[in-house]
Amino acid sequence: DPNERVKWALRQLYYRQLDYRDANGHYAKQLSELGAGEITVDGIAFEPELQTTQSMYEITAPGANGTTVHIRHDGKVWTTTD
After folding, report:
1. What value does the CA radius of gyration of the chain take, rounded to a whole number of Å?
2. With the CA atoms of 45, 52, 56 and 48 taken in that order, what torsion angle do they form, in degrees rounded to the nearest 10?
């Protein structure tokens, strides 16, 4: 399932956010601060987007077949369809 590969890529960003918060006291506000450009997904263009507040964040990325894959600050991962 291609969406499982997107979920794993988002999970990598989740772990990087945890490390960033531990080091800086707050979540990264830009994906570049997490090295998102280093993460690739076979067969899908990995183009994540980050939305943050002071205490939460959500990262989304296009998945396969018109889906969007989401992960939020507490690790919950889910998909939605367009």
Report:
1. 12
2. 0
pLDDT (tens digit per residue) in 10-24? 999 999 999 999 999
Q: What pLDDT sits at residue 73?
A: 97
* Rounded Cα gap, residues 59 and 72, in angstroms: 6
Six-digit token string for 67: 């889906």
Q: How far, CA to CA in Å, does 23 sit from each of 68, 75, 79? A: 30, 19, 30
Beta strand 49-52 with 77-81 is unpaired
Say how many C-beta atoms besides its own lie within 10 A of residue 31's C-beta.
Answer: 18
Name the pTM for this structure: 0.94
81 pLDDT band, cuts 50/70/90, is: very high
DSSP conformational letter for 38: G
